[in-house]
Amino acid sequence: MSYSDMRYSVSQCSISTAYSKCVRYTRRIFKYDQMDFQFALWQMLYLFVSPQKLMKMFQTRKYTKSQYARDDPAFLVLFSGVLCLSSIGVSFVLNLSFVQFIKFLFFVVFIDAIGVGLVLATVLWYLTNTFLKPQNHLQDIEWGFSLDMHFNAFFPPLILLHVIHWLINHNTYLSVFFGNAFWLCAAFYYAYISFLGYNSLQILKHTKVFLAPIPWFILLYLISSLIRWNVSDALMTFYKYRVL
């Protein structure tokens, strides 16, 4: 059998396995008694205090369960709950009506978090398998792992930005300076945790490319602060316009 035939066979097997894993994962979402919420809370905590330890867990899962991606949807369920609670706080700041809040929650959960997450996970899954993985390595990076990495990297910025929106949604220079600094930290968190996640796989090369956007984030922060463009205020205006 040629290498291309082997590659195609492994790819077909991976697709079939990924589909079966996705079905099992989806079914478990409706079985709360089978979820480990305490462990999921531990993961959320470590995303803030020590994300390196959390990434080592993905390596351990590969040896014990033959997959990098989570097989327990408890993290996703808690993530959705936190997103709903933080959206309530933002809705109070925006002074939204109940109907507007429902629309806002729909956009935040299904568009900003899940929709964008699916797109980013798919793009990063393709790029890592195409450019960062050695061509002679038959095993592909799981799409579910890329989605997990997005949610891991998105959770700290979500808390950081949604919780302090009410403090930085002003037009004073200090609000612009500190508000945009929070955005810089959020962007850094996303890039850094994404780097830690993909770097933990060990089969990938040149994973430092995930850190490449950081200098651009710093440059954008400096420019936005100099011209006194409040990113949080702009986002609040966009949120409110979207639900009107």
Labels describing this entry:
single chain; 244 residues; mainly alpha; globular; disordered N terminus
List the helices and strands and how they pair.
Blueprint: H1 3-28, H2 37-49, H3 51-65, H4 74-94, H5 98-132, H6 143-168, H7 173-199, H8 214-226, H9 231-243
Helix pairs in contact: 2-3, 4-5, 4-6, 5-6, 5-9, 6-7, 7-8
User: What integer value in Å does the Rg equal?
Assistant: 20 Å
Distance between the termini: 60 Å
- The total count of helices amounts to 9
What structural class do the secondary elements suggest? mainly alpha
Q: Main β-sheet: number of strands, strand sense, barrel status?
A: none
Main location: membrane
Subcellular location: Membrane
Membrane topology: Multi-pass membrane protein
Protein name: Unc-50-like protein
Quick description:
Belongs to the unc-50 family. This protein has one domain.
Q: Care to describe what's here?
A:
- It comes from Exocentrus adspersus.
- Belongs to the unc-50 family.
- InterPro entries: UNC-50.
- The chain is mainly alpha-helical and 244 residues long.
- The chain has one domain (3-243).
- It is 77% helix and 0% strand.
- Helix 4 (74-94) crosses helix 5 (98-132), helix 4 (74-94) packs parallel to helix 6 and helix 6 runs antiparallel to helix 7 (173-199).
- It starts with a helix and ends with a helix.
